[in-house]
Amino acid sequence: MVGLISGTSADGVDAALCRVAGESRGGMGMGVRVDLVAFRTVPYPQEVRDAVLEAHGLRVPQMAALHARLGAVFADAAIGVCASAGFPLERVDIVASHGQTVWHDPRGTLAGYPATLQLGEPAVIAARTRRDVVADFRGADVALGGEGAPLVPYVDFLLLERGGTARAVLNLGGIANVTWLPGSGDARDLVAFDTGPGNMVLDALVRRHGLAPEGYDLGGKLALQGQPHAGLLAELLAEPFFALSPPRSTGRELFGATFVERLASRASELGLAPRDTLATAVALTARSAAEAVLRFCGEPAEVLLCGGGRRNLAVRRALQDNLPGAALRDTDDEGVDGDAKEAIAFAVLGWLAARGLPNHLPHTTGASRRAVLGTFVPGASA
C-alpha cells in the first residue's frame, strides 16, 4: 500500500509505503497491523504551492489544470517512495490518496451547500502508476451529513490505543486536530475533532514579516524571542469556532489569509513587534488545543504529538504550560513516525476501503451512518 497526503500547510506530498495486514473484527478491521517500509516528503514546486494557496481565487480552467497537475505530483510521489525502498511499483496493491484540500465547508455556511474539495486527479495517479487508486475519502462522509474530518482518528485508535491509559494524540499540522483515546479499548468512546490553527497562522506570519528564509519558524526560535500579548490572545480566542462542540472541523477558509490579515493589523494597532505577534499566535495554537482537550475530552495522562509542529519548541512549551499534568511525548516513541502518520493513516483507510470495510467513525465526524469512504479508480490494467 502507498498512502499519499498533502495537508493544510500545502508544502508538499507525504508518501508512505506500508505493509498492511490483518482481519476484520466486527466489520471494522480492528485487527489491522501496519509496517512502514519507506517514507518521503516531496516538496511542491513553488508555482504549484502558490496555486494551491490561492486556489479560492482561481477560475475554472486554472482549477482544472491544477487538479490534473497535482494528480501528476501525487503519482510521482508514489513512484518515488517505492523507488527509494527498491520496492517494485507493480507489487503495490493500492495507492490511497487523500489529495490536497482547497475547500472545506461541510456545514455549507460559506457557500450555501455542504461541500469539501480535494484536488489531485485520481485518474492521473492511476494512469501514471498503473496501480488501482482509492481517493476522495472526505466527500462521502460529508454526503452523509458529516464534517468529512477528522478521518485519521480511526487509525489512531488502531495503532495507538493502550488499555488503561487516557491519552490525547495531537497532530500539529497546518490545522491542529486531536484524538482522545480514553484507554477503554472501545472505539465508541473515542473523541476527535479539529482544535484550531496549528502551524498555518505561524507560517503565514513568518512569511508576512520576512522573518526567516525557510518561510517558517525553525524550531520555534523566533517565537521564543517574543512575548505573547494577553489582550490580543483573548480577542483571538473569542472566535466562535472555539466554542463549538464536536463534531467540528476547520481549515484555511477560517484561519487562512483573512484571519492572518486581521491578526497582523490588530497587532500593528497594539504596537506589537513581529516576534511578539508570532508568540501570541503560538499561544493561540496551544491554548485552543489544551482548552478543547480539557473541555471535551478529559485530563490526559499523556499527550502524543505528531506533525511538523511537534518540532516547534515554543509550541511544545506552551502546550506543557497549559497541560501541566500531562507528559508530552511524540508518536515516534510509540513506533509511529510522527511525520509519516497521516500518510500511513490513508494507506490503512485505503486498505479497508478495498475490502469493503467501514473506514471512519461516524460519531466523531457527525455522519449519519457507517460507510466505506473513498472512490475507486482502476489502474492496474491501464
Instruction: Please report the number of helical segments.
Output: 13
Q: What is the count of structural domains?
A: 2
In percent terms, what proportion of residues is strand?
15-25%
Determine the CATH topology of the largest domain. Answer: Nucleotidyltransferase, domain 5
The ordered H/E elements are EEEHHEEHEHHEEEHHHHHEHEHHE
Largest sheet: 7 strands, mixed
Provide key terms for this protein.
five-stranded mixed sheet, 382 residues, single chain, alpha/beta, seven-stranded mixed sheet, Nucleotidyltransferase, domain 5
Brief summary of the model shown:
The chain is an alpha/beta fold. 37% of the residues lie in helices and 21% in strands. It has helices at residues 46-53, 60-85, 122-129, 137-143, 153-160, 200-209, 230-237, 252-255, 257-269, 274-296, 313-322, 341-354, 362-365; strands at residues 2-6, 12-21, 33-43, 94-105, 115-119, 132-135, 167-172, 175-181, 191-197, 302-306, 327-330, 375-377.
